[in-house]
Amino acid sequence: MQFSQLKINDLISRALADLNYDLPTPIQVQAIPPLLKGLDMLGTAQTGTGKTAAYSIPLLQKIITNRSTYQSPILTSLIIAPTRELAAQISASIKEYGKYCKVKVCVVFGGVSKGPQINNLKNGIDVLVATPGRLLDLVDSHFIDLSRVNYFVLDEADQMLDMGFLRDIKRIISKLPKVRQTMLFSATMPKEIVSLAESLLHQPVRVSIGSVETPLRAISQSLYRVEKKNKAELLIHLLKDEKISSALVFTRTKNAANRLTKKLLNQPYKTEVIHGNKSQNARTNALKNFKNHSSRVMIATDIAARGLDISQISHVFNYDMPETPEVYLHRMGRTGRAGEDGITISFCAHEELSLLKDIQKHIGMEIPVIRVPITFSIEETTSEISSTKEKTDSFPSKANAKKRTSHNSPYYHKRNK
Ligand code: AMP
After folding, report:
1. Which structural domain range is residue 389 located in?
2. How far away, in angstroms, is 87 Cα from ligand 1 center?
3. Is the domain of 225 the same as that of 153?
4. Nearest CA to 130 among 93, 158, 113, 155?
Protein backbone atom coordinates (compact mmCIF):
# COMPACT_ATOMS: atom_id res chain seq x y z
CA MET A 1 0.00 0.00 0.00
CA GLN A 2 1.12 3.56 -0.81
CA PHE A 3 0.64 6.68 1.32
CA SER A 4 -1.38 8.10 -1.59
CA GLN A 5 -3.99 5.36 -1.09
CA LEU A 6 -4.52 6.54 2.49
CA LYS A 7 -5.87 9.86 1.16
CA ILE A 8 -3.50 12.01 3.15
CA ASN A 9 -3.42 15.76 2.58
CA ASP A 10 -0.65 16.91 0.22
CA LEU A 11 0.92 19.15 2.86
CA ILE A 12 1.47 16.12 5.09
CA SER A 13 2.53 13.86 2.20
CA ARG A 14 5.24 16.36 1.24
CA ALA A 15 6.65 16.29 4.78
CA LEU A 16 6.62 12.46 4.77
CA ALA A 17 8.42 12.43 1.43
CA ASP A 18 11.07 14.78 2.87
CA LEU A 19 11.63 12.17 5.60
CA ASN A 20 11.93 9.42 2.97
CA TYR A 21 8.89 7.61 4.28
CA ASP A 22 8.24 5.77 1.02
CA LEU A 23 5.62 3.33 2.25
CA PRO A 24 3.38 3.31 5.30
CA THR A 25 4.39 0.86 8.03
CA PRO A 26 1.89 -1.91 8.95
CA ILE A 27 0.51 0.04 11.90
CA GLN A 28 0.04 3.10 9.69
CA VAL A 29 -1.85 0.99 7.12
CA GLN A 30 -4.11 -0.39 9.85
CA ALA A 31 -4.57 2.71 11.96
CA ILE A 32 -4.77 5.70 9.63
CA PRO A 33 -8.05 4.88 7.79
CA PRO A 34 -10.17 4.27 10.94
CA LEU A 35 -8.59 7.23 12.71
CA LEU A 36 -9.41 9.46 9.73
CA LYS A 37 -13.00 8.27 10.11
CA GLY A 38 -12.98 9.46 13.70
CA LEU A 39 -13.04 6.06 15.41
CA ASP A 40 -11.51 5.25 18.78
CA MET A 41 -8.54 2.89 18.86
CA LEU A 42 -6.93 0.38 21.18
CA GLY A 43 -3.44 -0.44 19.94
CA THR A 44 -0.95 -3.02 21.08
CA ALA A 45 2.16 -1.51 19.65
CA GLN A 46 5.44 -0.20 20.86
CA THR A 47 7.54 2.68 19.69
CA GLY A 48 9.63 1.68 16.71
CA THR A 49 6.68 0.57 14.62
CA GLY A 50 5.82 4.00 13.21
CA LYS A 51 3.08 4.43 15.80
CA THR A 52 3.67 8.17 16.26
CA ALA A 53 2.99 8.93 12.60
CA ALA A 54 0.01 6.52 12.69
CA TYR A 55 -1.83 8.75 15.16
CA SER A 56 -0.21 12.07 14.16
CA ILE A 57 -1.13 12.01 10.47
CA PRO A 58 -4.91 11.84 11.15
CA LEU A 59 -4.45 14.45 13.88
CA LEU A 60 -2.80 16.87 11.45
CA GLN A 61 -5.36 16.13 8.76
CA LYS A 62 -8.14 16.97 11.20
CA ILE A 63 -6.49 20.26 12.13
CA ILE A 64 -6.01 21.23 8.47
CA THR A 65 -9.65 20.38 7.72
CA ASN A 66 -10.97 22.46 10.62
CA ARG A 67 -8.52 25.29 10.17
CA SER A 68 -11.04 27.69 8.59
CA THR A 69 -13.35 27.19 11.60
CA TYR A 70 -10.85 28.67 14.04
CA GLN A 71 -9.37 32.17 13.82
CA SER A 72 -6.36 31.28 15.95
CA PRO A 73 -4.90 27.95 17.15
CA ILE A 74 -7.10 26.07 19.61
CA LEU A 75 -5.84 23.19 21.73
CA THR A 76 -7.76 20.32 20.15
CA SER A 77 -5.18 17.49 20.28
CA LEU A 78 -3.63 16.16 23.45
CA ILE A 79 -1.03 13.40 23.67
CA ILE A 80 0.06 12.06 27.03
CA ALA A 81 3.34 10.15 27.33
CA PRO A 82 5.08 8.70 30.39
CA THR A 83 8.56 10.18 30.14
CA ARG A 84 9.97 13.57 29.33
CA GLU A 85 12.20 12.11 26.63
CA LEU A 86 9.33 10.36 24.91
CA ALA A 87 7.14 13.47 25.08
CA ALA A 88 9.93 15.53 23.50
CA GLN A 89 10.43 12.90 20.82
CA ILE A 90 6.72 12.76 19.93
CA SER A 91 6.50 16.54 19.77
CA ALA A 92 9.54 16.70 17.47
CA SER A 93 7.98 14.07 15.17
CA ILE A 94 4.65 15.91 14.95
CA LYS A 95 6.48 19.13 14.14
CA GLU A 96 8.27 17.31 11.29
CA TYR A 97 5.08 15.76 9.92
CA GLY A 98 3.26 19.07 10.22
CA LYS A 99 6.01 21.37 9.02
CA TYR A 100 4.03 22.52 5.94
CA CYS A 101 0.73 22.77 7.84
CA LYS A 102 1.56 25.71 10.11
CA VAL A 103 0.46 23.66 13.10
CA LYS A 104 1.46 24.92 16.53
CA VAL A 105 2.85 22.05 18.63
CA CYS A 106 3.98 22.46 22.21
CA VAL A 107 5.51 20.02 24.70
CA VAL A 108 5.36 20.30 28.49
CA PHE A 109 7.08 18.07 31.03
CA GLY A 110 8.48 18.34 34.52
CA GLY A 111 12.08 18.73 35.63
CA VAL A 112 12.60 22.02 33.80
CA SER A 113 11.39 25.53 34.53
CA LYS A 114 7.77 26.26 33.62
CA GLY A 115 8.44 29.78 32.29
CA PRO A 116 9.39 28.98 28.68
CA GLN A 117 6.61 26.36 28.47
CA ILE A 118 4.05 28.90 29.69
CA ASN A 119 5.31 31.44 27.14
CA ASN A 120 4.88 28.93 24.32
CA LEU A 121 1.36 28.15 25.51
CA LYS A 122 0.39 31.82 25.62
CA ASN A 123 0.89 32.17 21.86
CA GLY A 124 -1.87 29.62 21.21
CA ILE A 125 -1.35 25.98 20.25
CA ASP A 126 -3.10 23.25 18.28
CA VAL A 127 -1.34 20.20 19.70
CA LEU A 128 -0.01 19.55 23.19
CA VAL A 129 2.29 16.67 24.09
CA ALA A 130 2.68 16.30 27.85
CA THR A 131 3.72 14.14 30.75
CA PRO A 132 0.87 13.83 33.27
CA GLY A 133 2.29 15.70 36.29
CA ARG A 134 3.33 18.92 34.57
CA LEU A 135 0.15 18.92 32.50
CA LEU A 136 -2.04 18.85 35.62
CA ASP A 137 0.11 21.50 37.25
CA LEU A 138 -0.41 23.84 34.28
CA VAL A 139 -4.11 22.98 34.01
CA ASP A 140 -4.61 23.69 37.72
CA SER A 141 -2.87 27.05 37.36
CA HIS A 142 -5.08 27.87 34.32
CA PHE A 143 -2.31 28.03 31.75
CA ILE A 144 -3.86 25.13 29.84
CA ASP A 145 -7.51 24.74 28.92
CA LEU A 146 -8.50 21.20 27.97
CA SER A 147 -12.16 21.98 27.32
CA ARG A 148 -11.83 21.93 23.49
CA VAL A 149 -9.73 18.76 23.17
CA ASN A 150 -11.34 16.39 20.69
CA TYR A 151 -8.38 14.13 19.84
CA PHE A 152 -6.78 12.43 22.83
CA VAL A 153 -3.91 9.93 22.73
CA LEU A 154 -2.61 7.93 25.69
CA ASP A 155 0.75 6.62 24.57
CA GLU A 156 2.74 3.83 26.29
CA ALA A 157 -0.17 3.38 28.68
CA ASP A 158 1.32 0.38 30.49
CA GLN A 159 4.43 2.32 31.36
CA MET A 160 2.29 5.17 32.68
CA LEU A 161 0.53 2.76 34.99
CA ASP A 162 3.83 1.23 36.08
CA MET A 163 5.07 4.71 36.93
CA GLY A 164 2.03 5.33 39.12
CA PHE A 165 0.26 7.81 36.85
CA LEU A 166 -3.19 6.19 36.93
CA ARG A 167 -4.71 8.79 39.27
CA ASP A 168 -3.24 11.65 37.26
CA ILE A 169 -4.56 10.13 34.05
CA LYS A 170 -8.05 9.82 35.52
CA ARG A 171 -7.93 13.46 36.60
CA ILE A 172 -6.83 14.54 33.14
CA ILE A 173 -9.63 12.54 31.54
CA SER A 174 -12.17 14.13 33.87
CA LYS A 175 -11.21 17.53 32.42
CA LEU A 176 -11.71 16.52 28.77
CA PRO A 177 -14.94 16.95 26.84
CA LYS A 178 -17.07 13.79 26.78
CA VAL A 179 -17.34 13.86 23.01
CA ARG A 180 -13.91 13.23 21.58
CA GLN A 181 -11.83 10.68 19.69
CA THR A 182 -9.59 8.65 21.98
CA MET A 183 -6.66 6.37 21.28
CA LEU A 184 -4.84 4.18 23.77
CA PHE A 185 -1.55 2.54 22.84
CA SER A 186 0.28 0.10 25.05
CA ALA A 187 3.13 -2.33 24.51
CA THR A 188 1.46 -4.89 26.77
CA MET A 189 -2.17 -5.35 27.79
CA PRO A 190 -2.30 -6.16 31.50
CA LYS A 191 -5.79 -6.21 32.96
CA GLU A 192 -5.46 -2.69 34.41
CA ILE A 193 -4.99 -1.37 30.86
CA VAL A 194 -7.91 -3.40 29.56
CA SER A 195 -10.19 -1.94 32.22
CA LEU A 196 -8.87 1.59 31.60
CA ALA A 197 -9.52 1.07 27.89
CA GLU A 198 -13.04 -0.17 28.58
CA SER A 199 -13.84 2.94 30.59
CA LEU A 200 -12.25 5.27 28.08
CA LEU A 201 -12.89 4.04 24.57
CA HIS A 202 -16.12 3.80 22.62
CA GLN A 203 -16.29 0.72 20.35
CA PRO A 204 -12.59 0.97 19.57
CA VAL A 205 -10.90 -0.48 16.51
CA ARG A 206 -8.18 -2.85 17.70
CA VAL A 207 -4.75 -2.88 16.10
CA SER A 208 -1.86 -5.05 17.17
CA ILE A 209 1.48 -4.55 15.51
CA GLY A 210 5.12 -4.83 16.44
CA SER A 211 4.27 -5.81 19.97
CA VAL A 212 6.95 -6.73 22.41
CA GLU A 213 7.68 -10.12 20.84
CA THR A 214 8.89 -8.63 17.57
CA PRO A 215 12.46 -7.88 18.60
CA LEU A 216 13.03 -11.53 19.39
CA ARG A 217 13.14 -12.41 15.73
CA ALA A 218 15.97 -10.04 14.83
CA ILE A 219 17.83 -9.95 18.11
CA SER A 220 20.44 -12.40 19.26
CA GLN A 221 20.29 -13.03 22.99
CA SER A 222 23.05 -14.37 25.18
CA LEU A 223 23.97 -14.55 28.80
CA TYR A 224 27.04 -14.50 31.01
CA ARG A 225 26.83 -16.11 34.43
CA VAL A 226 29.03 -13.78 36.40
CA GLU A 227 29.37 -12.72 40.00
CA LYS A 228 28.13 -9.26 40.82
CA LYS A 229 31.57 -8.02 41.84
CA ASN A 230 33.00 -9.00 38.44
CA LYS A 231 30.32 -7.46 36.27
CA ALA A 232 32.05 -4.10 35.71
CA GLU A 233 35.29 -5.78 34.71
CA LEU A 234 33.46 -8.10 32.32
CA LEU A 235 31.64 -5.17 30.73
CA ILE A 236 34.89 -3.23 30.27
CA HIS A 237 36.43 -6.35 28.74
CA LEU A 238 33.54 -6.88 26.31
CA LEU A 239 33.46 -3.22 25.31
CA LYS A 240 36.99 -3.60 23.94
CA ASP A 241 35.32 -5.26 20.98
CA GLU A 242 35.03 -2.56 18.32
CA LYS A 243 32.06 -4.33 16.77
CA ILE A 244 30.07 -2.89 19.67
CA SER A 245 29.40 0.42 18.01
CA SER A 246 26.86 1.63 20.53
CA ALA A 247 25.88 0.06 23.83
CA LEU A 248 22.92 0.76 26.07
CA VAL A 249 23.69 -0.68 29.50
CA PHE A 250 20.85 -1.17 31.97
CA THR A 251 21.34 -1.13 35.71
CA ARG A 252 18.54 -1.68 38.16
CA THR A 253 19.16 1.30 40.40
CA LYS A 254 20.24 4.90 40.03
CA ASN A 255 23.14 4.32 42.42
CA ALA A 256 24.33 1.34 40.44
CA ALA A 257 24.19 3.46 37.27
CA ASN A 258 26.32 6.16 38.91
CA ARG A 259 28.81 3.64 40.30
CA LEU A 260 29.23 1.95 36.93
CA THR A 261 29.65 5.29 35.16
CA LYS A 262 32.56 6.10 37.47
CA LYS A 263 34.18 2.76 36.66
CA LEU A 264 34.05 3.50 32.94
CA LEU A 265 35.46 7.01 33.28
CA ASN A 266 39.00 6.10 32.25
CA GLN A 267 38.02 4.08 29.22
CA PRO A 268 38.89 5.39 25.75
CA TYR A 269 35.26 6.07 24.82
CA LYS A 270 32.62 8.45 26.13
CA THR A 271 29.94 7.17 28.46
CA GLU A 272 26.65 8.86 29.30
CA VAL A 273 24.33 8.13 32.18
CA ILE A 274 20.59 8.68 32.31
CA HIS A 275 18.24 8.14 35.24
CA GLY A 276 15.51 9.81 37.23
CA ASN A 277 17.79 11.73 39.61
CA LYS A 278 19.58 13.52 36.78
CA SER A 279 18.43 17.02 35.90
CA GLN A 280 16.43 17.34 32.72
CA ASN A 281 19.30 19.18 31.05
CA ALA A 282 21.69 16.38 31.93
CA ARG A 283 19.21 13.80 30.61
CA THR A 284 18.67 15.70 27.37
CA ASN A 285 22.41 16.12 26.79
CA ALA A 286 23.16 12.48 27.59
CA LEU A 287 20.52 11.35 25.13
CA LYS A 288 21.69 13.79 22.46
CA ASN A 289 25.32 12.61 22.73
CA PHE A 290 24.30 8.97 22.63
CA LYS A 291 21.90 9.47 19.75
CA ASN A 292 24.45 11.28 17.60
CA HIS A 293 27.04 8.63 18.50
CA SER A 294 29.53 11.04 20.04
CA SER A 295 29.19 8.81 23.12
CA ARG A 296 29.47 5.09 22.56
CA VAL A 297 27.97 3.89 25.83
CA MET A 298 24.90 4.99 27.74
CA ILE A 299 24.15 3.61 31.19
CA ALA A 300 20.48 3.78 32.03
CA THR A 301 17.86 2.73 34.49
CA ASP A 302 14.59 1.51 33.03
CA ILE A 303 13.37 5.05 32.53
CA ALA A 304 15.11 4.79 29.15
CA ALA A 305 13.88 1.30 28.39
CA ARG A 306 10.75 2.21 26.57
CA GLY A 307 9.64 4.55 23.93
CA LEU A 308 12.87 6.18 22.96
CA ASP A 309 13.66 5.92 19.31
CA ILE A 310 17.43 5.67 19.15
CA SER A 311 18.54 4.12 15.92
CA GLN A 312 21.57 1.89 15.57
CA ILE A 313 22.03 0.68 19.11
CA SER A 314 24.12 -2.38 18.32
CA HIS A 315 24.07 -3.86 21.82
CA VAL A 316 21.83 -3.80 24.86
CA PHE A 317 23.47 -5.02 28.06
CA ASN A 318 21.43 -6.18 31.01
CA TYR A 319 24.15 -5.36 33.51
CA ASP A 320 21.57 -6.11 36.18
CA MET A 321 18.90 -8.62 35.29
CA PRO A 322 15.54 -6.92 34.80
CA GLU A 323 12.96 -7.28 37.54
CA THR A 324 10.27 -8.66 35.24
CA PRO A 325 10.10 -10.45 31.89
CA GLU A 326 8.25 -7.48 30.41
CA VAL A 327 11.12 -5.17 31.30
CA TYR A 328 13.52 -7.66 29.68
CA LEU A 329 11.53 -7.42 26.45
CA HIS A 330 11.31 -3.66 26.61
CA ARG A 331 15.03 -3.29 27.21
CA MET A 332 15.74 -5.65 24.36
CA GLY A 333 13.39 -3.64 22.16
CA ARG A 334 15.90 -0.76 22.22
CA THR A 335 18.18 -2.68 19.86
CA GLY A 336 17.39 -4.23 16.50
CA ARG A 337 14.94 -1.48 15.64
CA ALA A 338 13.45 -0.89 12.20
CA GLY A 339 14.49 -4.30 10.92
CA GLU A 340 18.14 -3.94 11.94
CA ASP A 341 19.90 -6.78 13.72
CA GLY A 342 20.60 -6.31 17.39
CA ILE A 343 22.33 -8.09 20.23
CA THR A 344 21.23 -8.37 23.84
CA ILE A 345 23.71 -9.59 26.42
CA SER A 346 22.69 -10.28 30.00
CA PHE A 347 24.89 -10.56 33.08
CA CYS A 348 23.31 -12.90 35.59
CA ALA A 349 24.70 -13.29 39.09
CA HIS A 350 23.63 -16.25 41.17
CA GLU A 351 21.25 -14.11 43.22
CA GLU A 352 19.49 -13.15 39.98
CA LEU A 353 18.87 -16.69 38.78
CA SER A 354 15.21 -16.68 39.72
CA LEU A 355 14.69 -13.53 37.63
CA LEU A 356 16.33 -15.35 34.74
CA LYS A 357 14.06 -18.32 35.29
CA ASP A 358 10.97 -16.09 35.07
CA ILE A 359 12.24 -14.45 31.90
CA GLN A 360 13.02 -17.75 30.21
CA LYS A 361 9.63 -19.14 31.13
CA HIS A 362 7.96 -16.04 29.76
CA ILE A 363 9.79 -15.97 26.44
CA GLY A 364 9.59 -19.75 26.13
CA MET A 365 13.27 -20.35 25.50
CA GLU A 366 16.59 -20.70 27.27
CA ILE A 367 18.96 -17.85 26.67
CA PRO A 368 22.27 -19.29 25.41
CA VAL A 369 25.05 -19.01 27.98
CA ILE A 370 28.47 -17.76 26.90
CA ARG A 371 31.42 -18.89 28.96
CA VAL A 372 33.03 -15.96 30.70
CA PRO A 373 36.73 -15.35 30.22
CA ILE A 374 38.79 -17.34 32.73
CA THR A 375 39.58 -14.28 34.85
CA PHE A 376 35.97 -13.94 35.91
CA SER A 377 34.63 -16.54 38.27
CA ILE A 378 31.25 -18.06 37.63
CA GLU A 379 28.63 -18.95 40.16
CA GLU A 380 26.80 -22.08 39.14
CA THR A 381 24.66 -22.53 42.23
CA THR A 382 21.09 -21.36 42.45
CA SER A 383 19.96 -19.33 45.40
CA GLU A 384 17.19 -16.99 46.48
CA ILE A 385 17.15 -13.45 45.18
CA SER A 386 18.80 -11.16 47.65
CA SER A 387 16.52 -8.50 49.00
CA THR A 388 17.92 -5.08 48.41
CA LYS A 389 16.92 -1.76 49.85
CA GLU A 390 18.16 0.33 46.94
CA LYS A 391 15.49 2.30 45.21
CA THR A 392 14.72 1.31 41.65
CA ASP A 393 13.92 3.92 39.02
CA SER A 394 10.23 4.07 38.15
CA PHE A 395 9.41 0.45 37.52
CA PRO A 396 7.39 -1.89 39.66
CA SER A 397 8.80 -4.11 42.31
CA LYS A 398 8.91 -7.78 41.56
CA ALA A 399 6.11 -8.27 44.03
CA ASN A 400 3.92 -5.81 42.13
CA ALA A 401 4.90 -7.18 38.81
CA LYS A 402 3.94 -10.67 39.96
CA LYS A 403 0.36 -9.47 40.09
CA ARG A 404 0.52 -9.34 36.32
CA THR A 405 0.30 -12.73 34.73
CA SER A 406 2.86 -13.67 32.16
CA HIS A 407 0.12 -14.57 29.71
CA ASN A 408 -0.44 -10.84 29.28
CA SER A 409 2.52 -10.94 26.95
CA PRO A 410 1.56 -11.27 23.31
CA TYR A 411 4.74 -13.32 22.95
CA TYR A 412 3.35 -15.80 25.44
CA HIS A 413 0.20 -16.19 23.36
CA LYS A 414 2.21 -16.66 20.22
CA ARG A 415 4.36 -19.34 21.77
CA ASN A 416 1.54 -21.17 23.40
CA LYS A 417 -0.93 -21.40 20.57
P1 AMP B 1 7.86 5.47 16.13
O2 AMP B 1 7.37 4.08 16.35
O3 AMP B 1 6.77 6.42 15.82
O4 AMP B 1 8.78 5.93 17.22
O5 AMP B 1 8.77 5.42 14.80
C6 AMP B 1 9.96 4.67 14.74
C7 AMP B 1 10.86 5.13 13.63
O8 AMP B 1 10.29 4.81 12.36
C9 AMP B 1 11.08 6.64 13.62
O10 AMP B 1 12.47 6.86 13.42
C11 AMP B 1 10.30 7.14 12.45
O12 AMP B 1 10.91 8.27 11.88
C13 AMP B 1 10.33 5.95 11.50
N14 AMP B 1 9.15 5.84 10.62
C15 AMP B 1 7.85 6.01 10.95
N16 AMP B 1 7.06 5.79 9.88
C17 AMP B 1 7.87 5.47 8.85
C18 AMP B 1 7.65 5.13 7.46
N19 AMP B 1 6.43 5.06 6.94
N20 AMP B 1 8.74 4.88 6.70
C21 AMP B 1 9.98 4.93 7.23
N22 AMP B 1 10.26 5.23 8.52
C23 AMP B 1 9.22 5.50 9.32
Report:
1. 219-415
2. 16
3. no
4. 155
If you measure from the C-alpha of residue 54 to the centroid of ligand 1, how many angstroms do you get, rounded to a whole number? 9
Q: Is 333 exposed, middle or buried (0-12, 13-18, 19+ CB in 10 A)?
A: buried
Residue 111's region, left for phi above 0, alpha for psi from -120 to 50, else beta, is: left
Q: Name the residue of 3, 29, 52 whose CB sits within 8 Å of the most ligand 1 atoms, as the mutation to test its pocket.
A: 52
Nearest CA to ligand 1 atom 18: 21
What's residue 329's pLDDT? 83
Is residue 153 a part of any domain in this protein?
A: yes
Q: Which atom of ligand 1 is nearest to the CA of 49?
A: 2
Q: What is the pLDDT of residues 321-371, one digit of tens each?
A: 999 888 888 888 777 655 567 889 999 999 999 999 999 988 878 898 988
Choose the weakest-confidence range: 38-42, 236-240, 249-253, 359-363.
Answer: 359-363
Are 119 and 240 contained in the same domain? no
Q: How many angstroms separate the alpha carbon of residue 147 from the centre of ligand 1?
A: 31
- pTM, full prediction: 0.69
Pocket flag, ligand 1, residue 43 (CB < 6 Å): no
Which CATH number is 232's domain given? 3.40.50.300
Instruction: Judge if 99 and 228 occupy the same domain.
Output: no
Give the least confident one: 173-182, 241-250, 358-367: 358-367
CA 53–ligand 1 middle distance (angstroms) = 7
Domain total for the chain?
Answer: 2
- Assigned domain for 201 exists: yes
Q: Is the CB of 309 under 6 A from ligand 1?
A: yes
Using DSSP bridges, classify how beta strands 77-80 and 219-225 pair: parallel, antiparallel or unpaired.
unpaired
Let me know if residue 214 belongs to a domain.
no
Same domain, 242 and 297: yes
Query: Closest Cα to residue 103, out of 4, 18, 9?
Result: 9
Is the model's pLDDT at 295 over the cut of 90? yes
How far is ligand 1, taken at its centre, from the CA of residue 333, in Å?
15
Residue with CA closest to ligand 1 atom 8: 50
For residue 47, the ligand 1 atom closest to its alpha carbon is 2
Distance CA 59, CA 294 (A): 35
CB-based contacts of 398, cutoff 8 Å, min separation 6: 323, 324, 355, 385
Same domain, 363 and 273: yes
* Comparison of pLDDT for 303 and 73, the residue scoring more: 73
The verdict on residue 170 lying in a domain is yes
Is 24's C-beta closer than 6 angstroms to any atom of ligand 1? yes
Q: Is the CB of 12 under 6 A from ligand 1?
A: no
Pocket flag, ligand 1, residue 46 (CB < 6 Å): no
